[in-house]
Amino acid sequence: VFAALLAAIDEDELFFWNNVKDTVVPSALASFLRAHPSGHFAARARKLHAALSDRAASINPPGITAPSRAKAAVGTYPAFRPGETFKDCADCPVMVVIPPDKFFMGDISGKGKKRERPVHEVSIDYALAVGKFEITRKQFAQFVRATGKSFTDGCIYFTGDKFELNHSRSWADPGYIQTDDDPAVCVSWDDAQVYLRWLNKLSTGGYRLLSEAEWEYAARAGSQSKYSFGDDIGAQCDHMNGADKSTDLKWRNKYRDDGYGRRTAPVGRYEANAFGLHDFHGNASEWVQDCEKRDYYDAPRNGAAHTGGNCSRRAVRGGSAMSASRQLRSAYRYWISRNFRFYTIGFRVARSLKDSFVFNPARAPSRR
Prior knowledge:
Elements: H1 2-8, H2 11-20, H3 26-35, H4 42-53, E1 85-86, E2 95-98, E3 101-105, E4 120-124, E5 128-131, H5 137-147, E6 155-158, E7 163-166, H6 189-202, H7 212-220, E8 285-292, E9 310-317, E10 333-337, E11 345-346, E12 350-352
Parallel strand pairs: 8-11
Antiparallel strand pairs: 1-2, 2-5, 3-4, 5-12, 6-7, 8-9, 9-10
């Protein structure tokens, strides 16, 4: 009888329930109920949620002014607190210190892809800084000039009928108009690693790509909705540069008359999320560090990147200016070959902040 009962329970629901059944956090149970409102454990979840709601704090990070714990985040740069920004050198990207906390990663809504499940709790319990913006064309151009690196292999571009390799396309000409402040695209995962090696020589070091878990944590910024600003994409057109009526969206944002929606926009043009980070939904999709992993069973729960499996394909997160609404969700994920250059994919950087990192005011004279 017990075996028959287990067989009747949805596997994702059981996995999610095992994550939250002993929680003292009401919002964790609320996430479970959104994903499985009529599930086998729904009644128990509602009862526990009601009992906890009046006496337990939410797991959501309390904004960007302080870490979620009473004491300062372990390893934070001296004098830097969550929400503050810094530049490590003149040509380095602007970094935002984000608070440590726990969050639920994956398809919290229960309506996403199997690759976004099972929902699982991840702990970001270390001090972390994330690029305020995606790496721009200007920043990438500085790297190209300094290293003399050549990009002659072309870029994959959508012709209107199909995707094909176009040898005349590159980060300098992805096939649509960009400004120096637009995100650099037509950059492969391998290209991003070369850029990071250059950046680490230029600065005090420690720069890298985000892991998938870090990316989703930063994108959600304490939210448990489809997007960091809520579930209603149609009413929130100031927050992202996504696709227009040519795909599945029936809305127009205030910059559509400038031609955005089929091309990237300057970074920071759209509103920041609660952590002070821009363009996690739309503009350019972003490479992250992880190797391909088709689901979240046995996924790292400590913020680390998945390094097993097929590492010739790497994870990409976040929709682009050409993406439909389902691809702009915080939970959306996919993979492509690490050496592919694609006309909508760029990257942003991160660095873990440890006591051993010494901030150099001579190389970074001001906060921004």
